[in-house]
Design goal:
686 residues, alpha+beta, Rossmann fold, Dna Ligase, domain 1, 9-stranded mixed sheet, 6-stranded mixed sheet
């Protein structure tokens, strides 16, 4: 028997999903180890080995593949714990990261301090030399300026350098020359070139991507080396892949070359899982872990990729799967502010010390403590009984809120519970209502260990009609990693328009993209028959400031003049879909061309062959438990069902609780659930 493994490190727990050669999947969890993530990585593998009754060494020898979603780079950026970066720009353009793209602020935000640039002014150096928009050298590169910048960087203790020169995406000669000199002058210092990391015509996004990439390069490289060393010490001989932010996996060498693609990579796996679990066209994915609640959406059964992700006040620069996060997890701390209002999060108890009920030194009330007090979470069956919770400690923590608010313990616990729910509803509305999408028309897929506890009330608030509690909900992101593809994105700049379409130039660009995509997939070990390529272009109406991305089909990776009307019509339709208008008589400009290389992995679809036996006879609760009901203001007894004992077609009606080893689901009145063929609980609200 051989295994494939996905490990997702969260704020509180590290999830490990294991698929054997028959496609049978099991989930394991162990506490996250902040500061030593590689230790938690190995710990959860040992837990999995124990679950299969194997010695760790024997289990490691049977693992063919490990895929991994990391939060290391995201944490470094969010906590502003990146390395010192030097930035080299074209003379006269020192303020690219200051001016950004002139973003429009809110109508009433008329007194704002303009945010500081990502790289401080004293670490930003300029060099003489100029390439124009057609790739012609207007002024030669000043090699003396480059050497002077290197000398100043050395004196300032710079740990990485980003280079962003004007129009390097058309002619990279100057950027390449700068790197050659910097490598001589600053040996061992990583150099990021903007035209390699983010080849697009917009200077700010290209250069901010290079700066961010450089700032996390040593951090990601060190983490990967530690992880590789830890696996080597365990005699792991299989393949290791890392999640990227475009919804797929990358080999280690590619991630080291482009570490920016690891930013926010873990949360992108949850929507990939939802894509596989449901055929619904419009899906909302909510993933509530220990620290955050991550929400994403699928439209027309397609992942939404955004070009405008933000890290604090700066754009990430590169496209990524659109996932929004708020500080609303099981470990989110509740407190009463100076105005006497209850607040929950964003501060979290994390993995250490964790919620008060963990008994590891935490004393502040958290969402998990509230759920214990409400009776929804069974202290004796947390993680299938492997981790006992202390109800008395949870009650003592929640009592602090009750005293401040002047209410009973149960009322305080419910206040924490419902406040957390409304925080998550706000995040859902941000990605649906504010994007012109009615959440009532969407199917909700729960992810993370805590979402199923909260989804019933959130569904009623949002007016949802249906939702799913997946069998592997507590490790939804890990499941996404286990079944997702190997993916990479390549792009090339070539400005043309429908008024004078440069067919030959476009085809040359598409050929280069196809070669780069083929090379990536070949290095990743993907067989030619398992390779897929998706094309798109960035387009705009003439004189518009910003482009939109439009997919198109090309059977052999080339276009002809006969394809132009189809490209133009695709742009008009996409523009109308996004902005509700189209201008058929305006010139359409094409600014860049993109390719997404997709490699199907061996065994990633085996899970679909494992279906549940049909439910035989009536279902019976394993127990009954009292939970606090706000509507009646008292504790009421509801049936508790064991998820593992339910067969396909089993039906249940709320109010009730459904328990699995790694999560608890709470169904309210009027919520009707049914187990599907894969063991997922699908709920209809009547």
């Amino acid at each position: 028997m051989t295994y494939q493994v996905c490990i997702d490190i969260g704020g509180t727990f590290t999830d490990c999903l294991v698929s054997n050669s028959k496609g049978e999947i099991a989930i394991f969890k162990s506490p996250t180890t902040p500061g030593e993530f590689e230790k938690g990585f190995i710990d959860v593998l040992h837990v999995a080995a124990e679950g299969y009754g194997l010695m760790p060494a024997d289990f490691m020898k049977k693992i063919e593949l490990v895929v991994h979603g990391s939060t290391v780079s995201t944490n470094a950026l969010v906590e502003r714990k990146t390395v010192k970066v030097g930035l080299v720009l074209t003379e006269g353009h020192q303020d690219i990261l200051v001016l950004r793209e002139g973003p429009r602020k809110g109508a009433f935000q008329w007194r704002l301090n303009y945010p500081d640039p990502y790289v401080p002014r004293h670490l930003t150096k300029t060099v003489a030399g100029r390439i124009d928009a057609r790739g012609r050298e207007l002024a030669p590169l000043s090699l003396d300026d480059v050497r002077k910048a290197a000398s100043e960087f050395r004196a300032l203790g710079v740990e990485a350098v980003a280079v962003g020169l004007l129009w390097s995406v058309v002619n990279p000669a100057h950027e390449l020359a700068v790197r050659a000199i910097l490598e001589q002058e600053l040996p061992g210092i990583p150099i990021t070139l903007s035209h390699e990391i983010n080849p697009m015509p917009r200077e700010y996004k290209r250069i901010i991507a290079a700066a961010i990439d450089a700032s996390i390069n040593p951090i990601v490289r060190t983490y990967i080396e530690k992880l590789k060393t830890a696996l080597d010490e365990e005699d792991f001989a299989g393949e290791l892949l890392l999640a990227n932010c475009v919804g797929g996996m990358m080999p280690l060498a590619d991630m080291i070359r482009k570490p920016i693609y690891s930013v926010m990579s873990g949360p992108t796996l949850a929507p990939m899982a939802a894509l596989a679990l449901s055929d619904e066209p419009d899906i909302i994915v909510g993933d509530m872990g220990g620290t955050t609640f991550d929400v994403s959406a699928l439209r027309d059964h397609q992942i939404i990729v955004t070009p405008d992700s933000m890290i604090h006040n700066d754009s990430l620069g590169i496209p990524k799967v659109d996932v929004r996060s708020v500080g609303a997890g099981g470990g989110s701390i509740a407190f009463v502010d100076e105005g006497g209002l209850l607040r929950v999060g964003p501060r979290s108890a994390g993995a250490r010390p964790g919620p008060a009920c963990y008994g590891k030194g935490g004393t502040e009330p958290t969402v998990t403590d509230a759920n214990v007090v409400l009776g929804i979470v069974d202290p004796d069956y947390f993680l299938g009984g492997k981790m006992k919770l202390e109800r008395e400690l949870a009650e003592a923590a929640v009592d602090k809120i009750a005293e401040r608010l002047g209410v009973t313990r149960e009322q305080a616990a419910y206040a924490i519970y419902t406040t957390s729910n409304h925080n998550m509803v706000a995040a859902i509305e941000e990605i649906t209502v504010r994007e012109g999408i009615n959440p009532r028309d969407s199917f909700f897929v729960c992810g993370g260990g805590a979402t199923a506890i909260h989804i019933a009330e959130m569904a009623d608030i949002l007016g949802l009609k249906r939702y799913m509690v997946p069998r592997f909900m507590a490790g939804l992101s890990a499941f996404g990693g286990l079944i997702c593809d190997i993916r990479s994105e390549e792009s090339a700049v070539l400005l043309t328009s429908d008024a004078n379409f440069n067919v030959d130039g476009v085809n040359q660009a598409l050929k280069r993209l196809r070669q780069a995509g083929d090379s990536f997939l070949a290095e990743a070990g993907v067989a030619p028959d398992n390779r897929q390529f998706e094309f798109s272009f960035l387009g705009r109406y003439e004189y518009q400031s910003f482009e939109i991305e439009v997919p198109f089909e090309s059977k052999d990776g080339t276009l002809s003049a006969d394809d132009l009307p189809g490209l133009v019509e695709a742009f008009h339709k996409m523009h109308e879909r996004i902005y509700s208008i189209r201008a058929d008589n305006d010139v359409v400009e094409f600014t860049a061309w993109k390719l997404r290389a997709i490699g199907k992995r061996s065994g990633q679809d085996l899970w679909q062959k494992n279906t549940l036996a049909v439910q035989s006879g009536d279902i019976k609760p394993k127990a009954r438990r009292g939970i606090y009901q706000q509507e009646s203001g008292r504790v009421e007894t509801v049936p508790v069902y064991e998820m593992a004992e339910l067969g396909a077609g089993a039906r249940l009606a709320g109010p009730c609780l459904v328990e699995a080893e790694t999560f608890t689901a709470y169904l309210k009145n009027q919520h009707r659930g049914e187990i599907d063929q894969y063991g997922n609980l699908v709920v209809d609200i009547i």
